[in-house]
Amino acid sequence: MGNLCSKPGTLSGGHTVLGGGQTVAPSSPRNESPEERRAQLAEAARQRMENDKNRLINKNNPNAGRLASQVNKPVKHVPQQKEPEPLRWMSTEWEKVLWKKQPYPDNYIPDSFLSSLRRNANFRPYTYWPLVLAACTISQHISSIFIFLVTFVRLYDESWDPRILVWICVGMFLLGLILWELLERCVFGYRIDKEQRAKTFKSSILVFLALLALSPVLRTLSASTSSDSIWALTACLFMLNILLADYGPSRSGRLGRERLTSVLSINAAMSASVVLASRLRDDISVFALMLFSIQVFALLPMLRTRLLMMPSFLRALLTVSFAGVSIHLTSGLSQLVTGIQAVILGFITFGAPWVLVWAQKFKNEIRGPWDVAIPQVR
Amino acid sequence: MISDFFHPNVGGVENHIYMLSVELLRKGHKVIVITHSHPPDRVGIRWLLPGIKVYYIPFVTIASSATLPNFFTFLPYYRSIILREGINLIHAHASLSSLGHEGILHAHHFGVRTVFTDHSLFGFEDAASILTNKLLEATLSNVDAVICVSHTGRENTVLRSCIPPSIAHVIPNAIVVDQFRPSEDLLTTDTINIVVISRLAYRKGIDLFVATAPRICTLFPNVKFIVGGDGSKLIDILQMREKHFLQDRIILRGPVRHDDVRKVLTEGSIFLNTSLTESFGIAILEAACAGLYVVSTRVGGVPEILPEDMISLPLPEEDDIVRAMSEAIRRVSAGLHDPHAAHARIREFYNWKDVTERTERVYQFALSAPETDLWTRIKRTNALGRFVGPIYVVILIVDIFFFNLLEWLIPRESIDYVPKECDWTQQRYEQYAKEVEDRVKKKATS
Lengths: 378, 446
Fold this sequence. Notes:
The complex is a heterodimer of chains A (378) and B (446).
Chain A: H1 2-6, H2 8-11, H3 14-22, H4 34-58, H5 65-72, E1 118-119, H6 128-156, H7 162-188, H8 194-219, H9 227-244, H10 260-277, H11 283-307, H12 312-331, H13 335-359, E2 366-367
Antiparallel strand pairs in A: 1-2
Helix pairs in contact in A: 4-5, 6-11, 6-12, 6-13, 7-11, 8-11, 9-10, 10-11, 12-13
Chain B: H1 12-26, E1 32-36, E2 44-48, E3 52-57, E4 61-63, E5 66-67, H2 75-85, E6 89-93, H3 98-110, E7 113-118, H4 127-140, E8 145-148, H5 151-161, E9 168-170, E10 192-197, H6 206-219, E11 223-228, H7 234-243, E12 250-254, H8 261-265, E13 270-273, H9 282-289, E14 293-296, H10 302-305, E15 311-312, H11 318-333, H12 339-349, H13 352-368, H14 374-382, H15 388-409, H16 426-445
Parallel strand pairs in B: 1-3, 6-7, 7-8, 8-9, 10-11, 10-13, 11-12, 13-14, 14-15
Antiparallel strand pairs in B: 2-3, 4-5
Helix pairs in contact in B: 1-13, 3-4, 6-7, 6-11, 14-15
GO molecular function (chain B): phosphatidylinositol N-acetylglucosaminyltransferase activity
Domain PIGA GPI anchor biosynthesis (chain B): 40-126
Transmembrane segments (chain B): 387-410
């Protein structure tokens, strides 16, 4: 009030202005110039905007959750009313269009702001046991790698006879073939004709003989390389194999086109076996190990994609038997490695699915009209 | 105005910056543009008609005319330019322009206010979006005002950069209506030409076009397609054309220069846009302005730009587009769409003058905002995230040291300031143009 009185210009009508101010301002029609009216309207609009904002905060709309948190944050500065003139049409509803000139400021926050935001729209939560079952395939793969490593160590210290291994491989091959045919016939309803069977036998004999011929070459392949390098290289290649292997079920009934990663995975495993085989002492051991590696890394994954079609009980049983065999074989070599192996298998089968289920609560997928649409073409 | 994207490149952002600058200049503001250079010849300082000063800063571009986010290297140039030109407001454009980001980062050391315009939409899924969104969030944590080109774009920007929605303004793009007049002679209704002008890329939904065009051709034997543009999906269109024997009904025009767009547009009566994402869709507006009836997929900000009786908005699905196109063709062949009326309506909706006035208001908003002190800025930057926060705080602090080093190395007294009378203003430009005209006339008479 002091500074109001101190201004000589306003002193003359000072008391009337003051009187008007104490009552409600709009009810003084006498000195209501257009500017003052405009200012009052602007104030009302500001109030309205504040209310709008508060309503937005309080609104318990799950979609507006993120927005509300942002409005609650310290706003850098109060938005200013910059368009007081067209307030007479303030009653018109705000529309989400650009072509119409609307009597709202450009930074007006409508009630519908972010209403089209959808969170976790396509989200299907995983449950624990199906994940465990899916993880079984990985455990099987790791178990088979351990079985292969044990076989190598046994051949390396010459405690196993390579000839027996060759016979085991032949037996496994026949067993796998029978299983494959059974699955084809029972599950998929295909029938393998005689011609195709003959082809299979021909090519397998070819591979058998080629390996036999190549084994002297493979034995001396990396003779000049230090064994330490070989162990490190093998470890890396097996890691690559585990990471890239195809653990899914076969997409079509017949053998479809292989994915690039699974081809790379098989290649990594074969290279690992070649460099390991080059450490062995005689040709027959090299031959036996290579044969075994083909069984484990090339043929078994193919069979495995089919086995995934089997009932879950059988899959679990298969995993348990694989893990049992590998742990049993390793325990003959080293207690420490057996322990590590058991921990790895346990974590992958039971721990990893639990971590995934737990991590789902952090899932926050934001979708809205700004996303790139997926064209639907027939 | 700061952006990586400016003339001599052409595009939506480039055009937007130019038009806005021209209009601001006309209103008596001083506008300079800072962008990166285009060696060998477009370097240094250039003037663009009608008097926009453009600084081409020597920076190496990586891909599609964007520079790498360097954070500091721009500062020496930047400081000199801002000081000698006496700038009080920085307006950065486009969220992929690192020059713009850098401009906003440095601006606060001078107490210069910052405005940012976002021209595009981004998702939240892929790695590229996640990284650029974080970059944007870091930049915008201290910005004074943000402009988005559509309401959808605003929602997207607010979500991406976590700014308070009250500083985000929506100001649409505009077009120069006179450049897109419908053709005077009425098109015949017995053959209906459908125009498609777009970059032929996946994001523009060319797959949808390839799927729908043959079906529309079989449904309506009097329909022809005119396709303008170039890109990786051209081969798909060529294959489709050959497979369905439509060589005489789908005419490919190749890349169309911006000046020629109107000519191509006026050959047709329906414009088809199959984009999968679009922030504003200036092409749609240009087509509607040239008097074409528009059929566009309902994505992004497209539903906002035109009233419902001027545009059909099918979903991005093959069947729905065919349905909407059939309706549009029937509508146009029945003569229900008047190109000149449509043109007159667009003239009411969009013009640069209006856009400029609204932008000026945002500038006022930014200038009247209280200045954020360094400590607040550091706190805000640190709040970005557990890992990103400290990294950006380090960047900010190093930037401040660098700035002070420059203050000491190149003191403000030693900088050449641009005198006021050296700038082009609208009046000076008009006066000069008149003088030149007179001189030419005199020469002609003598």
